[in-house]
Task: structure prediction
Amino acid sequence: MSRGRDDESHGRPPLRTDLTPIVDAVATADADAFVAVGDRFDDDLRYLTRFAGSDRAAALVIAATDDAAGRAVLCVAPSVRARAEREFVSGARDGNDGDGEFHDGVARELRTVQASEHAGERAAAVVVDLLDDTDRGGGEGGDRSVLVPASVPHDAAVYLERAGNALASTDAVATARSRKTDAEIDRLRRVQRAAAAGMARAETALAGSAVSDPTALDAPDEGRRPALRWEGGPLTTERLRREVNAALGAHGVTDAENSVVTAGSALADRRLPGDEAIRAGETVVVSVSPRGPDGYYGDLTRTFVVDGDGGWERRAYVAVESAREAAIAEIEPDVPGKTVRGEASAELAAYGFDPNADAGGPAFGRGTGRGVGVSRRESPALSGAGTLRSGAVVTVGAEVSDPGAGAVRLTDLVVVTDEGCEVLATYPFGVVPESRG
Amino acid sequence: MSRGRDDESHGRPPLRTDLTPIVDAVATADADAFVAVGDRFDDDLRYLTRFAGSDRAAALVIAATDDAAGRAVLCVAPSVRARAEREFVSGARDGNDGDGEFHDGVARELRTVQASEHAGERAAAVVVDLLDDTDRGGGEGGDRSVLVPASVPHDAAVYLERAGNALASTDAVATARSRKTDAEIDRLRRVQRAAAAGMARAETALAGSAVSDPTALDAPDEGRRPALRWEGGPLTTERLRREVNAALGAHGVTDAENSVVTAGSALADRRLPGDEAIRAGETVVVSVSPRGPDGYYGDLTRTFVVDGDGGWERRAYVAVESAREAAIAEIEPDVPGKTVRGEASAELAAYGFDPNADAGGPAFGRGTGRGVGVSRRESPALSGAGTLRSGAVVTVGAEVSDPGAGAVRLTDLVVVTDEGCEVLATYPFGVVPESRG
Result:
């Protein structure tokens, strides 16, 4: 059997779930159980189960029990039961074959949800089963107390309430997710390496592009610089985006609809789909945030200029790179996120860029300074009041833009360590694209 | 400006939303408004707004009004306002520049949700605004009646209820989604063409692969047939999957984590990630369900065997192809979905394959016989009691598997027409792979 390559996770030991924080939250709240309901797009469920999910909703019930640390029951569609068994049950056991003890003492088991049944209804029945087994909360018709994530589907919540459960929301899952284990950091580093491969494809194409002949049919519009050509055709933002996504696919990750290529000063609208000519001298911002096979996201942004005049874009690049370094230098445990952002903004200001300029948007803007994990945006947020903790993985970077001149944006992923932080899967800097093929 | 290629939608007229069915549902239920809340993974919102969404939740409020057909307000994060304006507001106007009348008479407008605000809280405020403007339901503190999709996030539902709204769930969105417009069918055909390009890449690699030298180091396990090699290395399921995904990316669609390649009889566990050698004589099932730039999914499955012995896999292929044809021949408006599935099963049985065999799972199994649109699985379901309607787009196909022999699965997308059905973006059949480069 041939195993996967270095840049993704097939053949690695399965990622383990640790349900202790959820069991603890149930105990702390003096509740009876925790319930989550969702389909494959529910990242809390993916994190808690390592089950990649199906299009039909699944339900997870976790109860504290007297005889063990707890019991966890995942209810899935019959068609995906074998996969859920491997991902949720075997993956949490000790031993190479997944047949040892559950490493956190929480016993996992699987049940099924039929197509005719609502996952919330199923969860309500499982709550009764588990609590009847444990002498907890189990009076006839007596109200039980169940913790749920705040965004649990309303119909599931109604099923649970009608079955006699009082619901209270918990942020225990978000809190657990915000601090990554070494195994999770390994997965984040792998997907970030794949992101770098996508970026390398874009940079190499830009490095190999040529300024079109101004006398040719696709000559520049009046007063604009000529468009770039690459491998026999115009190099447009959409063509470059497809190159990036092909490289991501070849490296075992999905683009997750997050790859964005913009040219010029269009940073503010950067997720607008479009297919624009890329012109000589224009800033080209390439942003990727692929998702790896274990569900973890990467995040990487670079900016390039082909045949630039060394003016605005060079100054902007130096300022943004310095701001990024200033932010990185601040990151360590117990530092407020706002301090990190403040240092980056101050550095931009020192280079003469107004971090609060309306035209360009925030200097330490969207997509930077947030946690990344099984969601592209999760806790912690550097904009919030909280402080950084060791094990947090956040985007770090900065951007400036000017309606007339262009936009420069650089972001990377870092993990907060006891000593400071470490950039996950470094990618080179430089506004002039180089061939990285 | 260079426009996109034929296989995706950039440069096409924007897809329009028709909010009439929602306004009608509000009127029919004698309700005051409809509210949906969700992030970029909420397909109802994507359908109703054509807004591709952000990681932060958005809210849509639709109210019937006295002066017009209705008013629709979309609340989004400030950072994506420009994109939402283009996708939700301009895209629904007549005229090339998106500055004409709203074609369904429902006035669209945008508002923002700040990061400190919950989208459900924002929606509750907008409901009050819209109803105060219209003399409907607007008594001081009087209970208003609001329709919501059943799976609206629970915290959003609680905000709405606390603001004095009585909630009732509606399936108006699912019903509207189940019948596609010509423009939607065009988008489905385009993404299915991209799916075919991904399939062609897989088939071409299989056609170009060679049986490894049994005396070489990667010689077959005892008693098993030799593994395939392609372009200098072993051809594994993961390597083939990456080829497919690279081709999908190059054709402007995302693999959406739906590409699955399995070898042998592993159909039952086909979504288990893994990297297995592909061996001569083994059935290789390639299944893709990419998502196009407008959010519509494709769905295509083919099965190949390299260097087969012409035994089980040939008989199985003929049976599955016949079952597929029998299903297609049944499809027309007003036919019960169960009849379609029944015909396919009967055909498999006629070839000696037991459609109810435990080992192989259902003959007309998972992933076949369901609606496809902005969700990979949506209404209608051929397994349900309902009948087909013109404009429905469903997967059609069949499968058989045998633990010792392998698995054969073929699926396509069809649109139900007044006369029968039409296969969207045909892909050739044949168990022996051919080069389609």
